[in-house]
Design goal:
With 294 residues, the protein is an alpha+beta fold. The protein has 14 helices and nine strands. The longest helix has 15 residues, at 51-65.
Length: 294
């Protein structure tokens, strides 16, 4: 396994014969520790039968006390996207259309460079086959794989959305352009039809919906350096002085620093093949040209 193997795996099945173009139909989520489950911040906050009431209280009071900032679309979906974006525990989970942005998040935390990371890849066509017919029609009308807050506007509350169907299902939701960060990260969210259902459990029950690309710990430093050179870093994904500072602090960190983790000896690129190297260097004893005949 090397850098190119991982990139190839992330872009696997990206060819669209209908368009005759490479257009991947996957959503990606990078995680610095592969053993961590896909779990929403709401589920990490609380579990059990009161989770729905906790969700209602969180979203209601966020909307009540939020001052100086409003979502572009004044609906439950616009406020839910803004709440997730600002760190409120919600049933939403962050994903991206970009496999390299996901790879950034799998390698952004140098303290986790001693353990494998992961990039989860959710297949839109398979995911959307399991949603209620009324939602599939919405996607078909918009020729889209993911919903927008406007498309979900017919549902005035999370409870109304949850009553759509059983068993549970998942959809993907594009947030409105809340700021440059959302745009640069090519962001989208997953949304379960029930706050009590873990998306990890859902994908485990339906393995055809999602696959996991493992990011070996031994490759993390190399991947991180190459993403930085490709301009996939905190400075771009988190515009502003905070993102700039985070990028600079990590970029100039020594691999032997106390906060860094990973293999003591970094993996280097493959050396050139003997054939390739022979074309670049001549033997020490160069042969003389034969004398010209007279």
């Amino acid at each position: 396994m090397n850098w190119l193997n991982i990139v190839d795996e992330l872009y696997r099945e990206s060819w669209d014969p209908g368009l005759n173009r490479h257009r991947s139909r996957f959503a990606f989520r990078g995680m610095s520790r592969a053993e961590r489950p896909l779990q929403t911040s709401l589920f990490r906050l609380a579990e059990g039968p009161h989770l729905r009431r906790i969700e209602q209280g969180l979203t209601r009071n966020f909307r009540k006390y939020a001052r100086g900032e409003r979502p572009p679309v004044d609906s439950v979906w616009g406020w839910l996207a803004l709440a997730q974006h600002r760190g409120l525990p919600t049933r939403l989970l962050d994903w991206t259309y970009s496999p390299l942005v996901a790879l950034h998040f799998a390698t952004a935390n140098v303290a986790d460079f001693d353990v494998d990371g992961a990039v989860w890849c959710a297949h839109f066509p398979e995911v959307n086959r399991r949603i209620p017919p009324s939602l599939r029609r919405l996607l078909h009308e918009e020729s889209s794989d993911a919903f927008t807050v406007e498309m979900l506007g017919r549902f005035q509350s999370l409870a109304a959305f949850d009553r759509l169907a059983r068993p549970p299902f998942v959809i993907f939701l594009e947030p409105p352009a809340l700021d440059t960060r959302v745009l640069n990260q090519h962001a989208l969210f997953s949304l379960m039809s029930s706050p009590e259902t873990q998306i990890q459990t859902y994908f485990d029950d339906h393995p055809e919906l999602c696959r996991c690309v493992r990011v070996p710990a031994a490759l993390k430093w190399e991947i991180r350096d190459k993403l930085d050179q490709a301009n996939i870093n905190e400075r771009v994904l988190f515009p502003g002085l905070d993102g700039l500072s985070r990028w600079l602090a990590r970029y100039y960190m020594s691999v032997d620093a106390p906060g860094a983790a990973g293999p003591a000896k970094l993996q280097r690129d493959d050396p050139p093949s003997p054939k390739a190297s022979s074309t670049r260097a001549r033997p020490a004893g160069r042969r003389r040209k034969p004398p010209r005949r007279r």
